[in-house]
Each structure stands twice: as structure tokens, then as C-alpha cells.
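Protocol step 4 of 6: structure prediction from sequence.
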Amino acid sequence: MEYLVTARKWRPQKFDDVVGQEHITQTLKNAINNKRIAHAYLFTGPRGVGKTTTARIFSKALNCKNQKNAEPCNKCDICNEIQNGQSLDFIEIDGASNRGIDEVRTLRESVKYAPTRGKYKIYIIDEVHMLTKESFNAFLKTLEEPPEHIIFIFATTDAHKVPLTIISRCQRFDFRRIQMATIKGTLAKIAEAEKINIDDKTLTIIAKKADGALRDAESYFDQVVSFCGSKIDSETVAQMLNLIDDEIYFNISEAILNKDFSMVFNVTNTIYENGWDFIDFTEGLIEHFRNIMTVVLTEKTSLTETADVYRARYQEYMDRFSKGDLLRILNYLSRVQQELRFSSNQKLKIEIALSHLIGLEKTTTLTDIISEINSVTGIEKKNLLKEQVTPASLKGTYSDSKTFEKKPVVTKTAEQIVSYPLKNRKLVKQESDEVGTSNLGFDTVSKKWQYFLDEISKDRGLTLSPALSSLKLHSLTGNKLSVSSKIKDSRKTIELNRSYLENKSKSVFGKRLHFLFSTDKVAGIKDNLESVNLENDRVQKKSTTTGNPIEDFIVEELKGIQIK
């Protein structure tokens, strides 16, 4: 027997064999069972999804002598004749080569003759949109009122080119793109029957390349088998089909998290040397971040269009990218994709675009900021209600013994004022770990430092990880951790996120740490003097208290002055 390509050898012969189009095959089966057969059908959809195949199965089912449950038997003479293209009652016409008005006139004359053996005489016109305007107009009357024994089935990939006067006379069925999982399953069954060893990663590569067309996937499958034989390797398939390796996309996402700008040039050089298309690379990168966004939003990997080997890796990004950052990245890549088509130097354009992506800072929504503020103030209010507030205590300072002592604020030493900063101007309870009573040592901080960095990267990897990773630890005095950095902006970044870092250090080290840069000693004296001035102002303003502790507390809170 001569060799047949996979698309012909494994062409479906029954409705149940058609994959991905169950909404159409079930409707046609019901129409046959209920004897509600129309005189004209329009099958439209992308290439290679089963339009012509479904039309042939429908034709066999209508004329089959041993029809069972609306399925053709594929054994009787009529089924074999239709399958081999030898039936006089089954005429398949190519619309592209029979598009003139003369061919339509011949067709109009032939429909007058009754079928020779079957119940219906069926005309299949493939690519019907290729007919000329005059041919469509000449065909209108015949299509609207054909003889009882005539059925027309039109197939096209461009339904918008078919006149509305034709569409309105037909039952329209829209075939859809076949899902990647369905294509992989079909190819896996074919490979098993053909005794070909192929893995899930290779099937994913072929299914992605097919882009929803099963016939294209089967053609790629034949090409791969011819090249690799009975044992197919995914790397060889990717090279043969000139596909971009998915590892490149994972390298880019890691570079964005780690602020690794050198990866930009490594990636662009790899793409250029392998002859890959930069537009295809951008489309793959968009799909990569789409998969990450799917995992972040749904917290599962079942909706990602990728091989099983990559699903676990996408799962790792769940807490590393925020929703807002992913939307920004996808919007930016979409603009780059459009601009890339008109760029004269696509390599340079990609390098600039990737540099922008890596340089993006992590964003925080107003909702998250408000929630964080509310959570902090809620704890403070809860601690405040646990203590008894008296008029006398409001005029003193809150000591470590949890009782108020009347002490002039101005008599505090500079070190005490630094330990009790007034910058936030809130009524807060002193933490026992801020006065240096904890046994935490510098060696413990050094050992837990990497774990501390990992915890920070989960929440604010894009913002804080580069700055913290550049820090060099020097010493720990009380709760002040002396550090230094070679990066210029590290100190500014840490100052902007000081409150978050102190809270995080409390959960990791059991003690709230203050980051003190090597140049902070002079600045600390200035902060102490500012704190003394604020204390003096507070003492002067407290002379206007009413004597009612609750009213005094509300007034002071509204003024935004911290009470000691």
C-alpha cells in the first residue's frame, strides 16, 4: 500500500471522530435523527479544523443504507463510493477554479436531475467565497428553492466575503480553532498507533506551531517523523521548526526580578545568531507573561498553554509578580510589538525594550497602602485600649514598666530620643525589642540574612531586593544594624521603605532593626536635636488640655502630636 500522509490516513470517518467541533457534529446528528434536513449549509472557520471532513461525513450519513444513530456505516456501497470520490450523487467542486458564471449555469442545469442511488444529491463547493459577484447572483434563485433531492454545502475560510443574500439562505455553522490540549491528545493517539516515541514537550511545540489547525499539526508531525524517525527529541524538533526556546523567556522574567541588565544583550545576541524573528520573539514573550498572569490571578496552572514540564516553574512566580506589574509589562510589550513592525533596526529596538522592562520599579496600589496603614493603626488602637489613661499619665512619659512617670521631656538624653523617635507623631506603645533587651547578636543576623532577603523578595522583589542584596553588614549595636552599600541609590530606597523593613525584621529576627548607614552618625545628632524641639513644642501645647483624658487624647491626635 502506498504511503499516505497523516492528515489523509487519519481523516475522521464518523461524527464522533471529529475533535474540537462537538457543537456542530451533535447538531447535524440531531437534524438527521429528527429528519430536519435543510437544503443549504454554510461551514465557515479557520483552515484545517474539519469543514470539508464534516461535509463528507454528513453526505455519507444522509445516503447511508445502514445508518445507525445518525452515523454512516462506512461499509455499504454508497459510503465507499463517496469516500473514494466515485459517487454520481456526491459532487465536490472547487470554488476557486469554477468561479465563473458559465460554471454556475452548468450547475443550475445539473440540479434538475434526480440522484441515481442515494436519497439526496449533494453538492459541496469548497472556498465558495472565490465565486464572482455575477456567479452568486445567478445562483440565488436555485439556492433559495432547489429541488427536494438537492442539498448544497458551502465551505469557506472567509465568510465575510460571501454575500449576505447567500448567507441568509443557508444554515451557518462556525467552526472554531482546536484547542492545544485537543491537538496534543490527537497526535498522542496517532503516535501510539504508529509506534512513535514522542514526549509532551514535543507535542506542545507542534501544537503551538499549528496555531489551532489540526491538519497543520499533522503535517508538522509527518515532517518531524521523517527527520527524527521513531524517537523524537524536543530540542531537535525546535531547531528543525526554527522555534524559540522557552528557556529564553524564563531568563528574561528572572532578569526583571533580579535587575540583571546584562541578560538583555545575551538574549538579543542569541536570537540574532539563531536567525529567529524578533516579532515572533515578542509574541512568545507576551504569551510567557500571559501565562504568569494566569497563574497569579487564578492560582493554578491548568489554564496555561504550555508543556507540563513548565507548569511547575510558572507556579513559582505566583508571589513574585504583582497583578499591577504584570498588566504594565503586558501593555508595554503590546506597544513594542506594534512599533517593532515599523522599526528599521529591530535588534536595537528589542534591547531598549528589554532594558525598560528590567528597569521598571515595582508598584503598589492605593488599596494595598491603605490596608497596610489600617493594619498598623488597628494594632496601635488595640494596644492603647489595654492601658488605663489618666490625666496625670498624659503629662508624663511611657516607661518600660508600663506605667506613666512624670518626667520633663527635655531632660532626655540624645540616645533616648533616638530610641523614641517622634517622626511618625502617633501615640504608640514602646516595643521591648527597641530598647536593646533582646539577646539577638550580629552572628544570628548574619546567618538569617539570606532568609530575610528571600522573604523581602516575595513581597517587594522588584523594589527592595537589589538594594538589600548590595548591603554589607558591619555590626549590630542594640537594635541598630550598621551597613554600607556601593550602589548610590540603596540608602534612598531603604529610607523610603524603612517602616516595612522594620516590621519585616521583627517577624524574621524577633527584633525590630534600624538600618544605620556608615554616614548616618552625623545625621543622627541632627535628628536628636529635631526631636528635642518637637518635645518642647509638645510640652507647651499640653498646657491647653481640658483635664478630661479622652478629650485631651482626641485633641492631641487631631493635632498630629505624639504623646509620650
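Step 5 (inspection) to follow. DSSP finds 25 helices and ten strands in the chain.
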